[in-house]
Structures are given as structure tokens and as C-alpha cells.
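Project channel, design review

CF: Before we commit to the Albugo candida constructs, I'd like one complete example in the thread so the newer folks can see what an input/output pair looks like. Taking ODAD1 central coiled coil region domain-containing protein.
RD: sounds good, go ahead.
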Amino acid sequence: MQTGHRNMLRKLEQDYERRKGEQMGDVREKIRLLQIDRKSNISSLESNKHTNKEYIRELKDENMELRKQLAELKQNTSDTISYTTANTIGCRKAEGMEELLKALDRSRKQYDDMRHRVQAQTALYEDLKDEFRDLELDSKKPSIEDTPEVKKIRIFECRLDKAMMKYNEAQNICRTYRQIVKRLKEERIAFDTQISAIEKSMACRDQDHEELVLLHSDATQSKEHTFQELEKLKVKYEEEKRNRDQELKGKQHILKLHLVNSTDKELDGFREFKLESSLEGVDNDIPSEKNSVHEQISPEVPNCVNAHWGQNSAQEFLSAFRAMMETIGSNNVDEAIEKLVDQEATMKKLLKLLHENEHRLLTLQQSNTDSEERIRDKELNHKARRNVNGEHNQIYTPTLAMLERVKAEYGHYDILLTGIKAGVGHLVDQIRRVQGDNVGARVTDESVCDAIEWTQNVLTHMLSIIQNARANEQLNIDAENEESFSGDIAQFAHDLKVDDVTSAFLTQGVDIHHSSWNHPAFDGQHSEQRDNIAISNRIGRSLASEIECEEAMSRDHIKSSSNQLILAQRKTKERIQVDPQNTYTSLLNRKTNSLTRQIV
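CF: and here is what came back for ODAD1 central coiled coil region domain-containing protein:
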């Protein structure tokens, strides 16, 4: 559906461009022909004027010669008469009356001949004078209102005016299309800026991708570094654990020795106390205490005996004592005893530190496993991202191609809609100019359909008015054509009497009376031109009657008659109210109808 609509719009645009080019070519060709006709007419008029001037000058010279000859003849006749009278008087005495009478007869005969000759020359002079007056009038303005060449000239002028009007309208359309081209260039610049911005964003994204690749490489390096540090920490922890175990074993051994020594000292003190109590005679309560002490000591006696037997190797104990002192880090026995007393608190601290280190080790192991999982996930995500990027590129490439096609199609539709809007605006301006309303609303994108509908309604209304006016005027035109038929016959007879120069001038131009009517672009102007020709025929007949009454027409009279002809043409145009570009409006009407159907 869209392709069919696009093809239809493309064909419509091509048809519109072709018709516009043909109309412009026709207008240029007509203007060129009119210019050629005008130049040829001007050159022929100049040549006729020059030949008429030469002919008038020759007639003037011939008239002067005839006048000179007439004066010479008059002078010769007077001389001959005086001479003959003198001879007759002188010879009257010698020859007599007969000779005198003969001379008188001869002189009378000569006088009569000269008088007849003078009368003939005078008649010829009057004829030449009349002809000179006619030529002088023709030289002032060779085109008279009732002559066909004047009608031809006026028709050519009308054609030239219409061609100039069409040329001006073509110039207006050309300016409109130039503005459209300017706007399209601005929109193209805007699209270029948008495309450049998109390209910049793509470059920024490529740069971000490169930075992410670098960050990934840094992350892999940091991962390897953390693995190495973790291995080092594990080795260090194992070493510390072994050292702690050795220290604990040594301290336990020292504690056992210390317990053995303390039991020996308590036994010695008890023995001394027993001897003193026996010597001083303590109360009867002592035996009970002794019994309790013996009860306490009795289970320890075997252990003490065993310990006593274990003291056989003094060297071993001394070496152990020295090792204990070195382990404690002090040579003072009191300090060593205090440290041994505080050994339980130290043991608790060590156990607490052991639990803390174990907890820390577990947290580090958990964080290590989490980091390994994150790194593994990142690697998997990077691979998946590569796959996703490949898929996105596969989707993105046809999307870009589709975007370019849509941009081209949008530009084509934008150009077409801009041309439609400009054509509709020009059509609205022309219709408002015909209606006399120079103030018109501007055609926008929202009001294009309303403007097309309004122009269609106005054009249909105007066509109905024109058809009614033509129907009303057709009866008058038929009556006027019947009246002008006889005038055309008389005019045709008068045209046959035109000299060879004028007939050659008439055959140079283009016959616009019939050839232009047969052209389809001037069908709407046929009735208007026939009305103008009928009016010009009536004015021409009135001017012919005035010319018959007068001997010659003055320049002011010719101007007044031409003004009457122009006023009659204007009245006819105002009465009919037909736009000279009705063909153009009809073409635009058909185009607007087709465009409205396509838009709907």
C-alpha cells in the first residue's frame, strides 16, 4: 500500500514537473515569437516610413520643377507676344494688314496652346497636391483604427500583455520554489548536525568500550595479584600456627615442672610446721587439723615420691629451667613466677586471638571465594556481552539501513508536501486576487486540507458564474456576429485594396484570430476575444464613417478612438468577470482534486 502510494506521488510529481516545464517552455516560445513579430513589425513600419519619405521628397522635387517650367513658359509667352506686336507694328507699313492678321492668328493659336498646357499642368499639380496630402497623413500615423493592421497590432499587444502576466506568475512560482529549496537546505543542515551528533555519541561509546576493555584487563591483573597475596597469607598463617603450637607445648611443659616444684615446697613447709607444733604444745584442735592435712596430702604422697624419684637427673632439670627462663625472657625468678601465674590469662588471650584469626581466615576465604565468583561472573558476562554486542550489531545494521530509507522517504514526502502547500498557497492568493480580497490567511500544515476544500468550492462557484455569464452573453454575441458579418465583408473588401508593402507586413506576423483559439490552453478565452473583436468592429465602423466625413484624422482623434476601444474592452471584461488565466485555474482545480483524493 505504501509503495503504491509512493509511486503514485512520484508519478504525480513527475507529471507536475513535466507540465510546469512545458508551460514555461510554451511561455518562453510565445514571448520569443512576440518579440520577433514586434521587431519585424517595427522594422517594416520603419521601412515603409522611409520609402514614403523618399516618395514625398521626389514628389516635392517634381512639383518644384513643374513650377519652374510653368514660370518659364509664362515668361516666354509674354516675350513672344510683345515681340510679335512690335514686328506687326514695324511691318505694318511694309507688308500690310494680311501679314499682321496672320501673325495675330499664329499668336492667338500659340496662346491658346500655352493656356491649355497650363491648365493641364495645373490639374496635374492639384492631383499631386492631393496625393501629397494623403501621403503626409499616412506618414504621420500609418495605422488607422479601422485598418486590419491596427487590429493585428492590438491583438499582438494583448498577447504580449498576457504573456508578461504569465511570465510574472512564473517568476513568482520560481521564487516560491527557491524559498522551498532554501528551506530544504536548512533542514538538510539540521539533519547533518543531528547525524554528526549521533556519530559523536557513537565515537564516545566506542571510547567507553575501549576503556571498559582496559578496566577488564586491569581487573584480571588485580585478580592475579590478589591470588598471589592470598597464597602468601596462607603460607604465613601456617608458619604462625606451627610457631604457636610449639610455644604452647613449651609453656605446658614448664607449667608441669612448676607444679611439681610447688608441691615439694608445700610438703617441706608442712613438716616444719608439724615440728614446731609438737614442740610448743598446741591445743587439741591441732590433731584434727593434722588429720585434715594428712587427708589432703595422703593422695599426693605417691606423686611426690614419684617426682622425688624424677629429680635424679639434675642436669635435665637445670637445662629445662634455663630453657624456661630463656622462653620467659627474664633472669629474675620473681618475674618468671609472675609470668607463670599470669599464664592462664595469657592462655585465654592466645585462645581468643586464635579464634579471631580463625574467624578472620574464614572471612578472608569467603571474600576470596566471592571475588573468584565475581571474576568468573565478569568473565561470563564479558563473553555474554560480546555475544549480545554481536547480536545488537546484527540488529543495529539493518535498523540503520531502515533509518536511512525512512529518512529518504521522509525527505521525499516533505518536499512533496512543501510543494503542495506552496501550490495551494499560490492558488489561494490568485483566487483572493480575483475576488478583490488582498488580505489572505497564510496556508499552514494544519490548514492545507481546508484551503484545498475552500479553493475547490470557490472554483466551482466561479465556473458556474462563468457558465451562466457565457450563456447570457451568447445571445448578444450571436446578434453582434450577425451585425459584424457585413462589416467584416466590407473590411475584407477594403483589405484587398491595401498596397503590396502593407500586405507583406500583414503576412509576417502570426495569425492569432484562429490559431490561438484552436489551442486548448486558450479555449476559455475564445468568447472573450470574440466579444472584443465585435466591439472593435463596431468602433471601427464608427471611425470609418467619421473618416469619410473628414479629410484626415488628427493624432488626438486617433488617441481618443483608441481610448474608447480600450474602455470597451475593459467594460466587457468587467461584465463577464473572467480571469485571463482560467485555463491555469482549471488545471490547478483538477490537480487539487487529485491531491485531495490522495491525501484523504
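RD: helpful, thanks. The CA atoms of residues 101 and 489 lie 66 Å apart.
CF: Residues 444-600 form one domain.
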